[in-house]
Design goal:
single chain; 594 residues; alpha+beta; Ubiquitin-like (UB roll); 3 domains; 4-stranded antiparallel sheet; 27% strand
């Protein structure tokens, strides 16, 4: 390193004669002495040199202070960013935050004394590094002291609000929202009332301010006022509600005229407030369509969805067809203007194309291409018996049912009530442990057949209940009864493909098949031995139409395991267990009767 003295200018002095060396020759002639400089000149020279030195020093200090985009002396969260370019400062701040536990730790909040812990990632809570560097770059340098710049905090106010409400539950008092309601055709004003509760903006401000302090953040409750005032509600009654139901609305089209009566207007005109308490009058297209459905049917042409049918024992897609209808959502603003304005109550409209909800392409994507399971059970009595007719009636209702991926099929929901009006007849059913005639008897056999078809397709069992008594026409344990509306059978299509149900029958059998794409190589069943076997008692009942004699059946407990095969091995096992009661031997009109 060069010493400070080495950087000073070198001054050469006049050469002097060396004593004792006269023999080298005569000494040189002595140079005349320079005239003495005036004292004032020396002071000017010294001052000039000093000024130059100070200017040079000042220039160096300025260059040092103004180096980089962030001025010298600026810190953020204790990190010195002075003299760094923006990109350097951003990188340094990100690294600093990654090492600072405060920037990743959960936020402790308190609302009305209720505590909650929120993860920053769940509420969008971060240090906005770029905005923070921008803030740090503003202002001048500070050479002799630090200038701390607060980090810019960002938070998603809506996510924060949702997280707070979930964590602390109901707090404060609810705001009474404004509205206009109809009783018949008479509108009534519902005036708002202030509440006290969480407000997304104020909550966000509190969390931003307190996050990095390490202390719990107190989130305030604020007074909440509806955006629509009581005076505005009264004005809506007089300028919107009353005029709207004063007379019918008329919609003209190329296929006819639609008349919307005042009652339908009252049902579909929405005059309720949103979450902020703001009433924005509008027509609800769905409610309007429901209110005038019969009249719409005379001028609209309904679209027809693509469906599956069975041809030659295999599913076939039948293409849908486009319909034509009124776009009530697009007409809603015009209807509101006509209902509340002074320019007439007629709106001209054109029917628009209405695509089917399900196209042939949609069905193609479902992968309904092969039979993945089939199951058959036998019955007696031929197709003329009431019990057999009930089985066939249920099979007809279910044939062609399509269960989309992730959806659950409910037999009760699909068929609805199975009563006389639906074509079902009286046949033996078990009620309270006794066989007696009942409408829909025999549908349990169809239910068992359907259950087994879904079981061997490997679909998820959601709800089923085996019979109280064992009947040998069913496989033990893996069978199901049904009774409207209390007992149901449900399965879930937990595969990525659609499942199409096919049914077929003969004079002594019912068959259910599932069409889809195979997920499992096969599904099989293993049964345990029967255990806890019990004998049937004998019960004598009075003779009559409600008494059905039986030979009695033993009771027992048994297990069944559903085995899922894939790649040549069992990859999953599912256990089912059921305890059958012994079915009494019922004797009708015996000596002990009555």
């Amino acid at each position: 390193m060069t010493a400070a003295s080495d950087r000073q200018p070198t001054v050469r002095l006049p050469q002097q004669a060396t004593p004792g060396h006269d023999d080298l020759g005569p000494p040189p002639a002595e140079a005349p002495a320079p005239p003495a400089a005036p004292r004032r000149g020396r002071r000017v020279l010294i001052a000039g040199l000093t000024a130059v030195a100070l200017a040079a020093a000042a220039g160096g200090a300025a260059r040092y202070a103004l180096a980089g985009d962030v001025p010298r002396g600026v810190t953020v969260l204790g990190l010195d960013l002075g003299g760094l370019a923006r990109a350097e400062a951003a990188a340094a701040l990100r690294a600093h935050l990654a090492a600072d536990p405060r920037a990743t730790a959960a936020v402790q909040v308190r609302v009305e004394g209720r505590g909650a812990t929120l993860k920053p990632a769940d509420i969008g809570l971060v240090v906005d590094v770029d905005a923070t560097v921008d803030a740090a770059a503003r202002g001048g340098p500070s050479l002799f002291r630090e200038r701390a710049v607060a980090p810019v905090i960002a938070v998603d106010a809506e996510l924060l609000d949702a997280a707070l409400r979930k964590a602390v539950g109901k707090v404060g008092t609810a705001m009474k929202a404004p509205a206009v309601t109809f009783t018949g055709l008479t509108p009534t004003a519902v005036h708002p009332r202030p509440g006290r509760g969480l407000d997304p903006r104020h909550s966000a401000e509190a969390v931003r301010a307190g996050w990095l302090t390490g202390a719990p953040v107190d989130v305030p409750l604020v007074e909440l006022h509806a955006a629509t005032t009581a005076e505005q509600v009264d004005r809506i009654v007089e300028t919107i509600a009353r005029p709207a139901v004063a007379a019918p609305l008329t919609v003209t089209s190329e296929r006819g005229t639609l008349t919307i009566p005042p009652a339908a207007i009252a049902k579909s005109l929405v005059l309720t407030a949103d979450r902020a308490g703001l009433i924005e009058p509008r027509f609800d297209p769905g409610k309007l369509r429901a209110a005038v459905a019969p009249a719409l049917a005379t001028i609209e042409v309904a679209a027809r969805d693509a469906t599956f049918t069975f041809t030659g024992g295999r599913p076939k897609i039948v293409a849908g067809a486009e319909g034509r209808g009124l776009d009530l959502a697009a007409l809603a603003p015009q209807l509101l203007t006509a209902a509340t304005g002074a320019d007439g109550r007629t709106v001209a409209a054109s029917l628009t194309a209405a695509a089917p909800a399900t196209s042939a392409a949609d069905l193609e994507k479902l992968g309904v291409k092969e039979k993945v399971s089939t199951f058959t059970t036998k019955f007696t009595g031929g197709l003329s018996s009431s019990r057999s007719q009930n089985i066939v009636t249920a099979a007809k209702q279910v044939r062609g049912a399509l269960v989309l991926p992730g959806k659950t099929f409910s037999l009760n929901k699909h068929t609805g009530e199975r009563g006389y009006r639906q074509g079902y007849k009286d046949a033996p059913v078990i009620v309270g442990g006794h066989l007696q005639p009942g409408v829909g008897g025999g549908v349990s056999q169809f239910t068992t057949t359907l259950f087994n078809a879904s079981y061997y397709a490997g679909l998820e069992d959601v709800e089923h209940k085996p019979h109280s008594y064992y009947f040998d026409r069913y496989p033990a344990v893996i069978e199901s009864t049904i009774f409207w509306p209390d007992l149901d059978f449900k399965f879930k299509n937990d595969s990525p493909y659609g499942v199409l149900i096919d049914t077929a029958w003969t004079s002594d059998s019912i068959t259910v098949s599932m069409w889809s794409t195979k997920v499992w190589d096969k599904v099989t069943t293993e049964w345990s031995a029967r255990r806890n076997i019990t004998s049937p008692p004998t019960i004598t009942k009075p003779d009559g139409p409600d008494c059905i004699s039986t030979g009695g059946l033993i009771g027992f407990t048994q297990d069944a395991w559903r085995l899922f095969h894939s790649g040549g091995k069992v990859v999953k096992r599912e256990k089912f267990t059921w305890k059958y009661d012994p079915e009494p031997r019922f004797v009708c009109g015996g000596p002990d009767a009555g």
